[in-house]
């Protein structure tokens, strides 16, 4: 229908437009397949006996292969002999044509045009007093639904949006476009019409399998790239952690070796001081008085106490240095993580922009090609219409000539004319009787349909109220579950804080006990009396300390 051969037949706004012609042809929205194909053949000049060009043959094939029909029989098995049981809503089909012919228009413009199609009669009336029914509202939103799952999602979104309104729209008998706009302004439907990419919305993705497949592949590619980047970052982070762990082990080993060497030198210097003191003691016993010996002994004891206090201070300083080195390393890891995160964010933004640019170029090229095809189809359609008009004029002239000849023949036979008039009167009476019977049957079924629609509306309102009650009950249950979860989390946090306080107290006690033990051992070693066996032990200790220090260097 977008070919240049059919450009003289617009969708609406003209006496020969598609909407105006279909409205004149069908008194109701639901039509059978045979009637719809017959009307389309007459509109587009698709006569069976005539020679058709390629655009008309393609259009005729597409119309015959339409499969979006509703079954209207008890057998539920459409065959070639029961094609009259297939029916279709021609207004909904016209809305689908509008969406396919103008793919770049917004959802609000499309739904406004569809609202005019369902609310107008004969021509599109943009009056603010125009109204539609609730069933027609659902048909407008589901005009492009390819399957039942898509229709179910759209209907659920409509119900959720209606629950958020202060005054329900779906309970109204007549719905205006302002009500429809307020329904579309709610978050459930706004999220549905929100942009999913640079050129498409979630509504396009939901109603078009091609767009959905393309966006799925693009998102899967982006997700795979993000997964690879995450794995690479994890590998780098693990490698860095391993290197830092080796570095910490190396630094810790050097620190322990340095501390061992310092302790050995301290013990060696203490031993030499003690040996010198013993030599000085022997010399004092020989040369100086007892008072001088006591003064020297008291000075040595004071120096020993000072050395013990100094060792305790150095142990505390070492523990503080280890803790501060770990804090510096954690700060370095955090700064490195922030730098990696900003780099990943910049790469993601750049790659997403580049993909959107490529997708926009492909979509613009496709739209330009489709518009060129539409212009070509319209040009061919104008030429076809001119030829069809010429053939209709010739046919009309031949018909008039044939009618004149028949009239002359009828004038020659008055008896035949009288019989013909009697037969025509009988046919008119039968036609009037048939029309009266059809009108009575139609009124009866219209009344029955209105009663059925009223019962269905009441049932839907009851179901909606039941759904609201169920939602409130579930909301209360979820609030109770969340409250219990918060209480459990608070209890775990308190237990964790108590364990951490106990651990700090135990650690402080352990460090203090170790420092007291080292101080006691040093005092015991320094205050031990001198003997030959002790000299041998001290000499052996000095030799092993020297060898260990050389090995560590």
From TrEMBL:
Superkingdom as given in the UniProt entry: Eukaryota
Coiled coil start-end: 416-481
Organism: Saprolegnia parasitica (strain CBS 223.65)
Biased composition regions of type Basic and acidic residues, renumbered to the chain: 533-545
Statement: the UniProt record of this protein carries the keyword Translocase: no
Protein name: Uncharacterized protein
Chain residue ranges for the region called Disordered: 533-553
InterPro entries: IQ_motif_EF-hand-BS
Record flagged with keyword rRNA-binding: no
Key words of the record: Coiled coil
């Amino acid at each position: 229908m977008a070919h240049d051969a059919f450009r003289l037949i617009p969708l609406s706004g003209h006496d020969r437009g598609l909407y105006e012609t279909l409205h004149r042809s069908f008194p109701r929205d639901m039509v059978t397949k045979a009637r719809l194909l017959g009307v389309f053949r007459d509109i587009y000049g698709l006569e069976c006996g005539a020679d058709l060009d390629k655009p008309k043959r393609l259009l005729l094939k597409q119309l015959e292969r339409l499969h979006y029909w509703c079954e209207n029989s008890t057998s539920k098995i459409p065959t070639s002999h029961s094609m009259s049981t297939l029916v279709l809503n021609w207004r909904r089909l016209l809305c689908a044509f509008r969406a396919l012919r103008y793919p770049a228009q917004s959802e609000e413009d499309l739904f406004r045009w569809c609202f005019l199609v369902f609310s107008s009669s004969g021509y599109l009336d943009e009056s603010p007093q125009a109204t539609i029914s609730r069933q027609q509202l659902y048909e407008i939103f589901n005009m492009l639904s390819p399957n039942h799952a898509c229709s179910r999602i759209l209907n659920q979104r409509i119900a959720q949006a209606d629950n958020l309104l202060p005054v329900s729209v779906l309970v109204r008998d007549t719905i205006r476009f302002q009500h429809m706009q307020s329904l579309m302004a709610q978050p459930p439907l706004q999220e549905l019409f929100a942009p999913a990419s640079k050129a498409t919305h979630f509504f396009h993705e939901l109603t078009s399998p091609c767009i959905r497949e393309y966006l799925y592949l693009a998102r899967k590619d982006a997700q795979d790239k993000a997964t690879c980047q995450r794995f690479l970052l994890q590998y780098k982070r693990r490698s860095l952690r391993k290197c830092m762990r080796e570095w910490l082990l190396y630094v810790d080993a050097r620190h322990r070796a340095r501390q061992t060497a310092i302790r050995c030198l301290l013990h060696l210097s203490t031993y030499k001081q003690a040996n010198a003191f013993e030599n000085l003691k022997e010399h004092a016993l020989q040369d100086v008085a007892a008072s001088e010996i006591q003064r020297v002994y008291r000075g040595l004891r004071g120096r020993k106490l000072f050395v013990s206090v100094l060792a305790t201070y150095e142990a505390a300083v070492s523990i503080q240095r280890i803790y501060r080195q770990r804090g510096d390393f954690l700060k370095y890891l955090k700064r490195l993580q922030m730098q990696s995160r900003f780099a990943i964010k910049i790469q993601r933004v750049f790659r997403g922009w580049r993909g959107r640019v490529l997708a926009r170029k492909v979509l613009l090229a496709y739209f330009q090609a489709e518009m060129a095809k539409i212009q070509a189809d319209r040009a061919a359609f104008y030429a076809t219409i001119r030829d069809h008009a010429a053939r209709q004029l010739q046919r009309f002239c031949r018909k008039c000539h044939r009618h004149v000849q028949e009239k002359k023949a009828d004038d020659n036979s008055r008896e035949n004319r009288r019989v013909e008039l009697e037969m025509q009167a009988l046919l008119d009476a039968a036609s009037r009787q048939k029309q009266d019977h059809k009108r009575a049957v139609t009124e009866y079924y219209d009344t029955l349909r209105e009663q059925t629609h009223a019962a269905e509306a009441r049932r839907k309102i009851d179901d909606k109220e039941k759904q609201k009650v169920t939602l409130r009950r579930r909301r209360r249950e979820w609030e109770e579950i969340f409250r219990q979860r918060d209480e459990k989390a608070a209890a775990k946090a308190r237990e964790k804080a108590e364990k951490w306080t106990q651990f700090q107290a135990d650690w402080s006690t352990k460090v203090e006990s170790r420092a007291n033990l080292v101080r006691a051992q040093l005092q015991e070693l320094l205050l031990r009396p001198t003997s030959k066996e002790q000299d041998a032990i001290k000499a052996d200790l000095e030799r092993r300390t020297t060898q260990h220090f050389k090995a560590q260097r």
